[in-house]
């Protein structure tokens, strides 16, 4: 048996181990841990997502292989793990949001959406004929009535609401940084810079080379529409991130104030 | 549809071959903090009054009501379906449902089955997001929100009264007087409307129902 003492209890999701674990689900979570980091933070007037998108080839077009999706006008989704699984789940989330609007005539509340998608993810942890989804994702939304909301769903099919959360390989380091923030008092504009900074801090320059920062937000600043952060704001945020995140040294090694 | 069978036979009375209808006058008015809804109480089969004390103000949820006009059976059936759907939805959401949601559910049924149904429904209630709201779903299944809405066969007689007497930002008591006044006028003129006036005021605190009997109705003529 590979690795630890999982024995013969890890071959299918329909088997418990003697100590009450479902190894297939745990292995699915390992797949998420191998992926690069994604974070989501909720502030006073919105939600900001940041994803460390590792560039595996110089031939990639800039902006391709998006890790942040639009689920509905007011809902965004940042993912980590097996990208193909994540894309399929974003379609599920889109259908749920669309059907809700069609049946009930208004925006889907985020708590309800994340519970519906989590239920779907959970269903794939019950049978031996299918494998669990190898991705976690963070959902964020903003609307007039509920304000900013942030939920995270993991491969076990559980969903929790958060003020800030991180998924992927550097999630521990990212969580430490997130905990230092007073996000409840910040606005989206301030938060964008902090999110960029955290991604730059947790990025491992030794193990992983180049990366592209994917930033998106939804809040009062965007009038409730989830969209990628405009280029000029992103560039400014990255400048702030590189300056602060790298101990005052810019990319070419010069110290500036 | 079996609503319009031959009215020719002199031997058999009307009510043996006419569909039961809530001929009706119904209305709903928004005010700051809630809504006031009202209806007459007459149900007819042709010229026979099958029920003279009908309750056409039907609760769909704690703070959402509908006013029913058209076919009694159709509107009862639709109201039952929507009550189920809205109750389920509210449990899933773990919060009180929106009036807009209830209205959309009525629209969905009324539009999908528009060829088989004859139902004119006014949905009104209070929710914490948008306060008091009135939505009208006439025959055919359109949906539109209005600050004031009138419906049923008797409504035609009171459009002028509403146009001249409704003003925005009225108080709850002004609305109650407006509704009872309008309904009395309609009941006076429309043969398919009559009986008592049923009123309900819906707000954050709950639902307050009243009945105004024939002798207590506002009088518009000295006769």
From TrEMBL, chain A:
Where is this protein chiefly located?
cytoplasm
Compartment list: Cytoplasm; Nucleus
The record, for InterPro entries, names: Ntn_hydrolases_N, Proteasome_alpha, Proteasome_alpha-type, Proteasome_asu_N, Proteasome_sua/b
Q: What does the subunit comment say? A: The 26S proteasome consists of a 20S proteasome core and two 19S regulatory subunits. The 20S proteasome core is a barrel-shaped complex made of 28 subunits that are arranged in four stacked rings. The two outer rings are each formed by seven alpha subunits, and the two inner rings are formed by seven beta subunits. The proteolytic activity is exerted by three beta-subunits PSMB5, PSMB6 and PSMB7. Interacts with AURKB. Interacts with CDKN1A. Interacts with MDM2 and RB1. Interacts with the C-terminus of TBXA2R isoform 2. Interacts with DNAJB2.
The UniProt entry, under Pfam families, shows: Proteasome (PF00227), Proteasome_A_N (PF10584)
Specify whether Manganese is a keyword of the entry.
no
Similarity comment: family membership: Belongs to the peptidase T1A family.
Where does it sit, as one GO cellular component term? nucleus
Name of the protein? Proteasome subunit alpha type
Which species does this protein come from?
Answer: Oncorhynchus mykiss (Rainbow trout)
Which stretches make up the Proteasome alpha-type subunits domain? 9-31
Identify the taxonomic lineage of the organism of origin.
Answer: Eukaryota, Metazoa, Chordata, Craniata, Vertebrata
Task: Name the keywords, alphabetized.
Answer: Acetylation, Cytoplasm, Nucleus, Phosphoprotein, Proteasome
Report the record's Gene Ontology biological process terms. Answer: ubiquitin-dependent protein catabolic process
UniProtKB/TrEMBL annotation, chain B:
Q: Name the residues that span the membrane.
A: none
The UniProt entry's GO CC annotations, sorted and at most eight, read:
cytoplasm; nucleus; proteasome core complex
Pfam families linked: Proteasome
Give the UniProt keywords, A-Z. Cytoplasm, Hydrolase, Immunity, Nucleus, Protease, Proteasome, Threonine protease, Zymogen
Molecular function GO labels: threonine-type endopeptidase activity
PROSITE patterns membership: PROTEASOME_BETA_1 (PS00854), PROTEASOME_BETA_2 (PS51476)
Query: Which top-level group of life is the source organism from?
Result: Eukaryota
From the Swiss-Prot or TrEMBL record, state where the protein is found. Answer: Cytoplasm; Nucleus
A biological process term (GO) from this entry: proteolysis involved in protein catabolic process
Q: Which reaction does it catalyse?
A: Cleavage of peptide bonds with very broad specificity
Active-site residue numbers: 24 (nucleophile)
Keyword Ribosomal protein recorded:
no
Q: What does this protein do?
A: The proteasome is a multicatalytic proteinase complex which is characterized by its ability to cleave peptides with Arg, Phe, Tyr, Leu, and Glu adjacent to the leaving group at neutral or slightly basic pH. The proteasome has an ATP-dependent proteolytic activity. This subunit is involved in antigen processing to generate class I binding peptides.
Family membership noted in the UniProt record: Belongs to the peptidase T1B family.
Subunit? Component of the proteasome complex. The 26S proteasome consists of a 20S proteasome core and two 19S regulatory subunits. The 20S proteasome core is composed of 28 subunits that are arranged in four stacked rings, resulting in a barrel-shaped structure. The two end rings are each formed by seven alpha subunits, and the two central rings are each formed by seven beta subunits. The catalytic chamber with the active sites is on the inside of the barrel. Component of the immunoproteasome, where it displaces the equivalent housekeeping subunit PSMB6.
Its name, as the record gives it, is Proteasome subunit beta
Q: Which organism is it from?
A: Oncorhynchus mykiss (Rainbow trout)
């Amino acid at each position: 048996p590979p690795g630890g003492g999982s024995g013969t209890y890890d071959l299918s999701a329909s088997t418990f181990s003697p100590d009450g674990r479902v190894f297939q689900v745990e292995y699915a979570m390992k797949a998420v841990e191998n992926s690069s980091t994604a974070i989501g933070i909720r502030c006073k007037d919105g939600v900001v997502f940041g994803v460390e998108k590792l560039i595996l080839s110089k031939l990639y077009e800039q902006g391709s292989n998006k890790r942040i999706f639009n689920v509905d006008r007011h809902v965004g989704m940042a993912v980590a793990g097996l990208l193909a699984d994540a894309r399929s789940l974003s379609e599920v989330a889109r259908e749920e949001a669309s059907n809700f609007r069609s049946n009930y005539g208004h925006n889907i509340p985020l708590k309800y959406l994340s519970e519906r998608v989590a239920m779907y993810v959970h269903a794939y942890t019950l049978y031996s004929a299918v494998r669990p989804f190898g991705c976690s994702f963070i959902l964020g939304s903003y609307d007039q009535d509920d304000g900013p909301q942030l939920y995270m769903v993991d491969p076990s099919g559980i969903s929790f609401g958060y003020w800030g959360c991180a998924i992927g390989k550097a999630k521990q380091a990212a969580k430490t940084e997130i905990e230092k923030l007073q996000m409840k008092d910040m606005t989206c504009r301030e938060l964008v810079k902090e999110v960029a900074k955290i991604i730059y801090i947790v990025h491992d320059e030794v193990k992983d080379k180049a990366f592209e920062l994917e930033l998106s937000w939804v809040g009062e600043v965007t009038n409730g529409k989830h969209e990628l952060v405009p280029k000029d704001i992103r560039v400014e945020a990255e400048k702030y991130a590189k300056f602060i995140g790298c101990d005052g040294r810019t990319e070419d090694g010069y110290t500036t104030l | 549809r079996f609503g319009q069978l031959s009215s020719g036979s002199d031997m058999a009375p009307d009510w043996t071959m006419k569909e039961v209808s809530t001929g009706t006058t119904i209305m709903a008015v928004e005010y700051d903090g809630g809504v006031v809804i009202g209806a007459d109480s007459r149900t007819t089969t042709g010229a026979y009054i099958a029920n003279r004390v009908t309750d056409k103000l039907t609760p769909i949820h704690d703070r959402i009501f509908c006013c029913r006009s058209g076919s009694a059976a159709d509107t009862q059936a639709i109201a039952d379906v929507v009550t189920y759907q809205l109750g389920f939805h509210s449990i899933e959401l773990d919060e009180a449902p929106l009036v807009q949601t209830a209205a959309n559910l009525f629209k969905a049924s009324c539009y999908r089955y528009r060829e088989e149904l004859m139902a004119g429904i006014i949905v009104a209630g209070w929710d914490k997001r948008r306060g008091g709201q009135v939505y009208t779903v006439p025959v055919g299944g359109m949906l539109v929100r209005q600050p004031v809405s009138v419906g049923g066969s008797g409504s035609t007689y009171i459009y002028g009264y509403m146009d001249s007497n409704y003003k925005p930002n009225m108080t709850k008591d002004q609305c109650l007087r407006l509704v009872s006044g309008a309904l009395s006028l309609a009941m006076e003129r429309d043969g398919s409307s009559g009986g008592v006036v049923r009123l309900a005021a819906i707000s954050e605190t709950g639902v307050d129902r009243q009945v105004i009997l024939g002798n207590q109705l506002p009088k518009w003529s000295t006769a």
